[in-house]
Amino acid sequence: MSTEPTSEPTSGPAIRLLSVDFDCPDPAELARFYGTALGLPVIHSSDDFILLGRDGTPGLGFIRVADYRRPTWPDPSQGKQAHMELGVDDLDAAHARMLALGALEPSVQPHPDQRRVLLDPAGHPFCISTQD
Description:
The chain is of the alpha/beta class. 17% of the residues lie in helices and 26% in strands. The chain has helices at 27-38, 91-101; strands spanning 19-24, 42-45, 49-52, 59-64, 84-87, 115-119, 125-129. A four-stranded mixed β-sheet has the order 1-4-3-2, covered by helices on one side. A three-stranded mixed β-sheet has the order 5-7-6, with helices on one face. The chain is globular. 18% of the residues are buried.
């Protein structure tokens, strides 16, 4: 049985991606970080949930979790919980911008010439990459 994704139509209900949501201690802080980095506006906001995006496209959501524990990547004791790959044209310039916005740089960089691993303000690892 193949595990490759397929783009062929299936005979079932249509399923579409609405959002990718991140647990965090402070939704406003994480929404500010990603909203500024990706140029995404807030389309829904409450005390415990903020959704970034544009009408008709999948969004990024941030959910308050009272007992949130930061990921410990690359140490597997507290899994990374979520991971995003962000495409960039200039790796060094994007790296500097994300650090200026509040990202942290872990000491482990598996492929620094192709992608950089950074941590968002809630500790989620994400990569910036020039690869499509």
